[in-house]
Specification:
The structure is a homotetramer of 189-residue chains.
Chain A lengths: L8 H18 L6 H8 L3 H7 L3 H12 L11 H17 L1 H15 L2 H28 L9 H18 L6 H15 L2
The structure holds a DNA duplex (31 and 31 nucleotides).
Chain lengths: 189, 189, 189, 189
Amino acid sequence: MPDVARRSERSRVAILTAARDLLGETGYAQLTVEAIAARAGVGKQTIYRWWPGKGAVILEALVETAGEAALPDTGDLRADLTVVLRAIVAELADPALSATTRALTIETLGSDELAAQVRDRLLRPQMDAVKERLRAGQAAGQLRADVDLDLAVEALIGPPYHRWMLRTGPLTDTYADGVVEQALTGLAP
Amino acid sequence: MPDVARRSERSRVAILTAARDLLGETGYAQLTVEAIAARAGVGKQTIYRWWPGKGAVILEALVETAGEAALPDTGDLRADLTVVLRAIVAELADPALSATTRALTIETLGSDELAAQVRDRLLRPQMDAVKERLRAGQAAGQLRADVDLDLAVEALIGPPYHRWMLRTGPLTDTYADGVVEQALTGLAP
Amino acid sequence: MPDVARRSERSRVAILTAARDLLGETGYAQLTVEAIAARAGVGKQTIYRWWPGKGAVILEALVETAGEAALPDTGDLRADLTVVLRAIVAELADPALSATTRALTIETLGSDELAAQVRDRLLRPQMDAVKERLRAGQAAGQLRADVDLDLAVEALIGPPYHRWMLRTGPLTDTYADGVVEQALTGLAP
Amino acid sequence: MPDVARRSERSRVAILTAARDLLGETGYAQLTVEAIAARAGVGKQTIYRWWPGKGAVILEALVETAGEAALPDTGDLRADLTVVLRAIVAELADPALSATTRALTIETLGSDELAAQVRDRLLRPQMDAVKERLRAGQAAGQLRADVDLDLAVEALIGPPYHRWMLRTGPLTDTYADGVVEQALTGLAP
DNA sequence: ATGTAATCGAGACGGTACGTCACGTCTTGTT
DNA sequence: AACAAGACGTGACGTACCGTCTCGATTACAT
């Protein structure tokens, strides 16, 4: 079993960077473990020693990139959600970040293990943060008391995610605003 | 430049059937072109002659399976949408159909070409059917006149899709009903 | 079974010509049945209807090319053999004819059937002609009475054939003369 | 740019052995790279990493099999050559060894590169050994001083090679003796 | 300071699937 | 019935990566 104390930080960073760069430059199809190792100047075994596979590397790369999902609470629920939705939509519209997310989604589809990891480490925090903000709004009487907060979160995040995955429309601030508008209308008292 | 007139219908059907069966039985990992060819009793070349790759085969298999996206219009918008949403959710919850969709999604992510095909041949019809039903409801005064129908469609389809992709919750009739309820609340006059 | 009466002479000639041309232009590696058919403007089946395979086509091409193996008999054995040997060596040195012969040799190595055909239709006549000339020389007392004529023929043809196959030396008139000289020395009374 | 220092000797031997065995057991038609790899318990890539193709494998197998071409020199030229010619003829008559040689000849005809290799690594040594023995004989006055040694070698090796390639006669000790007899008659003072 | 044990880079290994090529057969009109 | 055209099942080709496995050569810790 690997001795984490002796782990080379240089290699760890090089691998994650190489993975991100390759995704940005050549796309998912060229993102092979061998390519990551070569680009990072690292032996393949060093990757397999510390990660179970390609997907886990991407996940870690994305987790490192992702900032803390701290949501603003200015008291103005609509304004706060607009900020969040715009950020989410912008991230999906950004080619570099989007490539990583897309790659991770592919890996996710093939592995329940990884799917759970992604859900718990990456999504849950984000969704929980939104949920908390909604709960606060609900307590403040800005939402009906009977709304299911999980559904409410999905009403906000589901549409842009669907649009991004299936490329069925543009991902703009205007769109983000529209999603917030529509969702809040359904949730308001 | 294959001569489509001489194409063997027997082979075409055998290939699509084999692809569907393999997905149902052994999952995506075992869905290789060689396995499809072997199972269908067909040469690999016959697959490559008519489809650009594995993804296109899956797409065609799914398109053939998918019935016509004719939506009911009983006049009761809520009832009609509930029927549709329950069907969509059931499909996503069904392991067999879901496997095909999942496989197709993976292939999609690796090819813009295929992504466009999927969007136009598989998704657009479904989404358009929902949109038309909503438009009829809008004309009948059951929806506000100012709702953006594209957003409305996404409000219905986005949440279950998000939940399915990221496995963040159960996909049940109750859930479907909740999604319809919430969406209609936001769209009602 | 094919009805030889209806056979298309046009196709027959086109096929043999295409085979010869392809050998001359692109070499043996490109000499596929499909290439012959395409170049000849002929269906593949027309080839397989009349020949058992590629080798038989080449054989027929070569048989048609090869003139009658009539040997001169001027009474001067050395002069006659020199003429023949120079002709043989020249043929082996000629890239076009040599390509066909080489191709046929390859096919021969893989099929006893074809090897027998080549031996009987192509080689035997040539070797027999040489043998007859030697027999006449023997009768005229220009050869020892006890020489084995089959061996004598091989003493003339074997060396240049070996040299050609294995590319171990130049194939010139001088060389041909040397072979005749050496062989006759061994056969003379 | 494979790293020859890390090459697996076990694999190298297994591949060459498998190639020889397959030739002996099933013949050239079944001698595919895939069959060699399977029989040797080796990945195909391991073959392609170290040899350019099937032909080179056969060549190496034959080179390893072939003993050193050390010719006896008892002082009795006729006896020494008889030993050699009988060995050559026996080798050509032996189905197993002959299969390898035949296979190599086929491969040779398709590649100038390989042909040169075969000539230089396999044939040249053998022919040179014979040539040296003849040179010694010439020095000892057993051959005329003016004989061309290259021609003399071909007079010995050419006939049996021709007979073997074209299957025009039996390959026996008696035949070998006849060839030596005839050649020496032509070369004697 | 030195031994020792794990990590490191490199890359060969046994595999699996890829997408292509040509084989020889079969099928479909045309002549 | 032979023909041109070309789709078909078959099977080998040579390539790309997979994940595992040796190799010395660092490198960091415990003597």
